[in-house]
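User: Can you predict the 3D structure for this chain?
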Amino acid sequence: MLYGQGSSATRNKSARGSAGQAAVLHVLRKRLHAAPRAWDFLSIALAIVTADVADWRSESPDGWTRELDLEIAVTDPEFWNGQARAIEEALKFLSTDVWHLRFVAGGFRPATPQNPIYPLEDCVVLLSGGLDSLIGAIDLATDGKKPFAVSNVVRGDSENQLAFAQSIGGGLRHLPLNHNATPPWSKEDSQRARSIIFIAFGVLAGTTLKSYHDGSRVPFYVCENGFIAINPPLTGTRLGSLSTRTAHPEFLNRIRDIIAAANLRIDLINPYENSTKGEMMLACKNQALLRSLAPRSVSCGRYRVYNYNHCGRCIPCQVRRSAFLSWDASLDTTYYRYNDLGRRDREHAHFDDVRSLAMALLEVESAGLDAWLGAALSYPRMGDPCPIRDLVARGLAELSALHDYFGVE
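Assistant: Here is the predicted structure, written as structure tokens:
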């Protein structure tokens, strides 16, 4: 049930999930006036995220790939049914599942608020609480832009999101939203489709700006380093367990086409698609502010598992630590649960993610980068693979320096 409360039940009983009520109420309380198709896109994203958390991968034939069949209420079903195939293909890439979407009438569209507020900001930026989005917001503000910061609020990140918004550019207008996707049973952990809700929140926010209502296009910045955006599989066995692909150029290009077809004047931009995380830190346009805030940012893929601490050994943690090493290792005051990656036990050097990266670095050294990459850069909508290949090489060099620093073998 979108924009409402669901009911609890066991897996085998009739029940209803829910999503989106808090988000829509927050937008309406702010008296923001968004475009009708932006509301439709949010409804679609909420339905997708709710299905993603409700359907257990363990029950699929191969233990991973699911087939999801959704009927979604929107205000313009004729248009969205024309886009169903494009959305399905984008989702297939995002979550590696098979999606079937049908759109019907009856979707949610709030009335225009009384005395609506049209923010004067000139762009939108996702502010996750992570290091990359922090750098992106700092750079935009330092360049003289006025970004409207939008966050997907999750426990453990909300304080950082608020603190960063207050610290950048004299204080950014901040829209913290939560999809609250809740199935009537326990959640599927992987949640690979959740990226769509980040985009939907940002698109909705972009259409509330005064410049949008005046007919202008609105830049929407999704700031993520190019290496983690590509997230090349380290070994052949890691294909199914890749992290989310929020900023992967294949996914962003597909979403750009859908946004354009909807006549939503939102330009989706990742200004760091050709930068490593270390390069982002080195090139940040307000180094003093970055030094004060960077250690507080969150990168860990298992942050909540370790009581809101960085594990230090997952792939996002290793990318973070290699970036700090490239920038200034002395400034990395982050607490890492597993700090010394060179310790030869299953908690450190023999941990799966550390070992997989070590194996990848060894394969690149012995067989060459192209042999290791294989078909990872062969997706049809990625664009020119040459700068991406060079980017991956530089990202691996940063990670190799981290392993050398700790003596990982």
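The mean pLDDT is 93. The two ends are 51 Å apart (CA to CA).
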